[in-house]
Amino acid sequence: MFERILVPTDGSGPANAALEYAGEIAARENLTVHILHVIDPDADPADASEPIAEGRDWAGDTGAPVIDEVHTGEPQEAILEYAATHDVDAIVMGTRGRRGVGRLLLGSVTEAVVRDAAVPVLVVRGAAEVRRRYPLETLVVPVDGSRHADAALEQALEIARHHDATVHCLSVVDVAPVGIDDGNDLRLERLEQYARQVVDDGVQQAEEMGVDAVGAVQHGSTQRQIREYTDDEDADLVVMGTHGRSGLDRLLLGSVTERVLRTATTPVVTVRAPAEE
């Protein structure tokens, strides 16, 4: 599991939701919590005092060690640099989960950090319908055979083993993006066979680690099926890769990850595979 987590904050509702959830984790796991507030270089440093104080209160109530700092610069750059230079194991961020002029800065920053972070990013939506339970009992991992999905599965299995939780390996056959209609039985069968193989491989990997696992193949819109399956299983966490397969055989992930982040009813851990050598 994690030993040091970074929680960027801007005093918004989503950021406070992330702080609260990070506090629950820290209270049970005795983690060190790094709280970071990033301000514009032309801003008054005093503007950061309230968000930092609120963050210290959230995390401090847990009894966990707390380190808080104020940095200046571009938020995503400052967050990624801080994570790299302070050897944090994960970043916990909030997001409002909507687009448009009214979207909070932290929302767009979260998506940028998810794309580029070398460590897992735990994203918490600041919405009433989001389940934020800890410890964890049920995890859902969308799998498609890509490097990033494989890395997400490895991370999910480590988390599940720590919690003695069950992992659901889910593959979604979404034929719409590749232009396959229901009448094209041969191509559809090929996708279904591949999805089933990926799921079976994931379940086998879990069992080899001593983790309880369930496999499922669903059909339809990928992000919708991930959300509905997660709700049906009353899961506590979704763990998924930041990118997926591309081209004709693409099954899920990539842009799907960002859509899941905006609509998920549980916290979501995103995992980026190491760069290929």
From TrEMBL:
Residues 1-125, 137-272 form the UspA domain. It comes from the Archaea. It holds the Pfam family Usp. InterPro entries: Rossmann-like_a/b/a_fold (IPR014729), Universal_stress_UspA (IPR006015), UspA (IPR006016). Belongs to the universal stress protein A family. This is UspA domain-containing protein. The lineage of its organism: Archaea, Methanobacteriati, Methanobacteriota, Stenosarchaea group, Halobacteria.
